[in-house]
Request: fold
Amino acid sequence: MAQCERVALKYWQVLDSDGGITNQQMALEFLPALARMVVCGGTHGNELSGVYVVQEMERQRKEKGEGAWPIPVTTVLSNPRAVKECRRYIDTDMNRCFNTATLSSPITDSSPYEVRRAQELNKLMGPKGSKDAADMICDLHNTTSNVGLTLIHYTSSDWVTLHICKYLQARTSQVCFNKLHTEN
Ligand SMILES: [Zn+2]
Reply:
């Protein structure tokens, strides 16, 4: 098995006509390796955990070279101006800038900084939805809400996301796992 090949345990049930379970099966499923992952910090400039993680990963890359991780990882400081000023954002919330309409809107002199930056990041990590887009983007945030360590994901069917959650749950006492529904 290649070093980066993903393995998932697939589980399914066979139901009879009344919906009763007649058979349960499990099998290993081999998935394609992740080709590219992105770790983002500082999407909100006053949330410093992700900034520190990105800085530490970049330090490790300098020390260990590109083989620091088993797959290629791009590290990104998403909103460097807001990080520098330790503010949530400069002109507008960057979390609201990655929808299709904003990513394709024309840039003018009056375009908010975060919209310009989101379009730059979309070129770097995407384009969103294209075959060249990163396989996984991990965007790190802090919150003052009492939610502990929380993973917010966009799908319940992605095996890698589910395995990351399982890995974290095995190592920390409380990990929330929330599915976020978005339009795009
Ligand atoms: Zn945030």
Q: What stands out?
A: Helices lie at 48-64, 80-85, 100-103, 113-125, 159-171. The pocket of zinc ion is lined by residues 43-44, 47, 141 (CB under 6 Å). The two ends are 35 Å apart (CA to CA). Residues 1-33 form one domain.
